[in-house]
């Protein structure tokens, strides 16, 4: 499990750092705010359900935003975000568990911990309403030896076990996939909230067709699953495109953070995307 040949160097480095990060001291016990309820509230208000991401920087960002994370999250909620995602990865994304705790204390919407959790103990670092589990990095199938050896930066923990461990702590696990095979793995493991990442973590290229190609299979398999389109959504037209392809919600970071501009208005950026289906204002194009 050591070859990293098919991963972008930045991702190999992210995973190396993740493997070194310690777990927490005891099991966290979360009284989670429901994501499906928050998405339904947004729909009822005529807002596109957007999970807005506090992402100070990233390997593909145009810069770094040093704003207070709490002010950013409050601006996102003011702009209509249904939930907040917080990068807690410190080395490559400028995040921290402390920022997440401050944000969760300040807002009343569900908060996702966005990190590269590889082991159960790493769940116990901070309370959040949702916890990200990335299939590519946590699941090795016995029948999938060739892929396992190629992507060897995975953990030894199995997805089903991590989903159970997340539920045991009160988290709602958001299980991230990138292709149909990973979708099958997620569904077999019992995932109820599935994110399809348009960003290929091998090449860091973004293609909105990824969601379009995976989404119908998720819907065919289950009406119950909450389906989230992740990454690469920049414009109101992109929002409509993902919604037409079946997204119950969108996870949006870069277009809201607008890393290239220090004083870009995060509330306005959020509102423009949240109102994308509002015909009264032309859907903001
Ligand atoms: O965003 C990156 O540069 C990145 C690089 C390497 C691994 C993961 C990365 N992003 C994680 C994410 O999933 C995104 O932060 C999230 O989906 C929002 O994407 P976007 O709207 O494109 O910022």
UniProtKB/TrEMBL annotation:
Family statement: Belongs to the TrpC family.
Keywords: Amino-acid biosynthesis, Aromatic amino acid biosynthesis, Decarboxylase, Lyase, Tryptophan biosynthesis
Reaction catalysed by this enzyme: 1-(2-carboxyphenylamino)-1-deoxy-D-ribulose 5-phosphate + H(+) = (1S,2R)-1-C-(indol-3-yl)glycerol 3-phosphate + CO2 + H2O
Pathway(s) of this molecule: Amino-acid biosynthesis; L-tryptophan biosynthesis; L-tryptophan from chorismate: step 4/5
GO biological process: L-tryptophan biosynthetic process
Indole-3-glycerol phosphate synthase domain mapped to chain residues: 29-265
CDD domains from the UniProt entry: IGPS
Name recorded for this polypeptide: Indole-3-glycerol phosphate synthase
Enzyme Commission number: 4.1.1.48
Gene Ontology molecular function terms on file: indole-3-glycerol-phosphate synthase activity; phosphoribosylanthranilate isomerase activity
Pfam family, one: IGPS
Top-level taxon of the source organism: Archaea
